[in-house]
Specification:
Blueprint lengths: L17 H13 L2 H21 L4 E8 L24 H13 L2 H11 L14 H14 L3 H5 L3 H12 E5 L5 E8 L2 H58 L4 E2 L2 E2 H33 L7 H23 L5 H90 L8 E4 L12 H27 L12 H10 L1
């Protein structure tokens, strides 16, 4: 086919101006505007047909807020609940991790099992007829001898693969909000699957915290038994060492120290008693026993004075051998003998008290010296005792700490500790998300215009501008008819 070069009026050269080029394009397109409009119209009609015949897809989204702040209802350091600490570091990793968890096989697999998607034709279609035969041929061409292995995919895996294509998780700008979208052919089904996926995610988060607390409690309780034995052994070692070295104490004071204090007080009292007994004895010896006044001696002296007065009165009245005078003299002598015996007893008692006080002081001094030696030994042994007590105290504190943490771990199970929550549940979509009618029609119109203009230009290059038809001569009868009509 011979390509006709466009004719340029006036025989212009290839360096024609832009205006002339535009006039050529306008001439090429305006001469075939019906063709351009027809092609564009056909493309638009095809776009309408595609929109009308394509299966509709409805997308529903649920919004989840991931709070990076820790929520510890129970103070348990071994099982932290928070993961984020800064908006530039760990928090971003936290949100990305939650997005990966939402699309993980475990979460989506649980959704497949809960909603029984392995029996849903939407996610596990069963092909039959010519389409199935065509797919078999394609599989044979692609897999060859491995065709049987490729066909052995379980319904669960097929449904899981379909669900992974239908689920989309994205982060809303630079926030802690995640949008979970599910696209299916039913608005209600999409909303139900989106809400179910969010519920599974929150349940799995709580289950993970509960399992962590349960494992921590089991580990702490297993360690707690060992720590209890260690604490008991260390405390028993303290008591044995204290008993073997005489370091028993009462009210926090060592027994040896308490004995020294008590013996010191007793020794002071004994010394005071010795000095008092010595002073009494020296007074009796220096001033005579007669100077010692007692109730018995005073009564005897009074009786002796009365007896002497009666004796003088009788000696003035009777003779020296008168019986009454003799009895009075004998009575006076008896009272004087009794007084002398009383005074001798007092002196002997003072001497005995002095000797007893001295002996008691000497015994206390010997005991006090031994107690001081024992205290010195106990002070030397108390250094080792303090080490044992410190070890026992540390073991007891460690045991108590583990006991508290084990109890807290048990109490934390089933407590709401997850920080994620649903802020916007999914609702059935009002209009389909695919196919996008406006975009598809706009693309069809654009492609139709491109195809129409391209066809018109190609025809212009091949055959040149269309030739104008000559005017048909009007018959005289028709002229008269037209004139009459006018």
């Amino acid at each position: 086919m011979k390509i006709v070069e466009p004719e340029y009026p006036g025989g212009r050269s290839n360096e024609a101006s832009l205006a002339e080029d535009l006039r050529i394009l306008a001439r090429a397109f305006s001469s075939r505007w019906r063709l351009i409009a027809g092609i564009a119209f056909l493309f638009v009609v095809a776009g309408f047909a595609v929109v009308w015949l394509s299966p509709k897809t409805y997308t529903s989204s649920v919004s989840i807020f991931i709070d990076p702040r820790e929520r510890g209802l129970v103070d348990l350091g071994v099982a932290p609940t928070g993961m984020g600490s800064s908006s530039q570091g760990a928090d971003g990793a936290l949100v990305d991790s939650q997005m990966a968890i939402l699309t993980s096989r475990s979460v989506l697999g649980e959704l497949v099992e809960r909603e029984r998607l392995d029996t849903d034709p939407t996610f596990n279609p069963v092909a039959s007829g010519p389409l199935a035969d065509l797919r078999g041929l394609v599989a044979a061409a692609l897999y060859g001898t491995d065709r049987d292995s490729a066909a052995e995919v379980s319904p669960f895996d097929r449904a899981l693969a379909g669900l992974q294509k239908a689920v989309a998780v994205k982060r809303v700008d630079n926030t802690y909000v995640l949008d979970i979208s599910v696209a299916t052919g039913s608005p209600a089904r999409s909303a139900a699957l989106a809400n179910a996926l969010a519920d599974i995610y929150l349940s799995n988060g709580q289950s993970a915290v509960d399992n962590s607390a349960r494992e921590s409690a089991a580990s702490l309780e297993a360690r707690l038994a060992e720590l209890g034995k260690v604490a008991e052994q260390s405390q028993r070692a303290v008591e044995d060492y204290r008993r073997e070295n005489g370091l028993l104490d009462t009210d926090g004071v060592p027994l040896a120290e308490r004995q020294v204090v008590e013996l010191s007080s007793q020794l002071v009292s004994a010394s005071v008693a010795v000095e008092a007994a010595k002073a009494t004895l020296e007074t009796l010896r220096d001033n005579g026993v007669g100077a010692f006044a007692s109730e018995t001696a005073s009564q005897l002296r009074m009786q002796i004075g009365q007896a002497r007065a009666e004796e003088n009165m009788l000696s003035d009245t009777y003779g020296p051998r008168h019986p009454r005078l003799v009895r009075a003299q004998e009575q006076r002598k008896a009272l004087e003998n009794t007084l002398n015996a009383e005074l001798a007893r007092v002196l002997a008692k003072a001497e005995a008290d002095y000797k007893s006080a001295v002996g008691q002081r000497t015994a206390l001094q010997a005991i006090f010296a031994k107690s001081q030696d024992s205290l010195a030994q106990s002070n030397a042994a108390s250094v080792k005792l303090k080490e044992l007590e410190q070890t026992a105290k540390q073991n007891r504190e460690l045991f108590d700490s583990f006991a508290v943490k084990a109890k807290q771990a048990r109490e934390q199970i089933s407590l709401p500790t997850t920080t994620a929550r649903i802020i916007s549940p999914a609702r059935p979509a009002i209009k389909p998300s695919a196919p996008k009618a406006l975009l598809l029609l706009a693309a069809s119109a654009f492609l139709g215009c491109v195809a129409g203009f391209g066809t018109a230009w190609l025809l212009y290059l091949v055959s040149g501008p269309p030739k104008r038809r000559r005017p048909v001569p009007v018959q005289p009868f028709r002229r008269r008819h037209l004139a009459a009509a006018e």
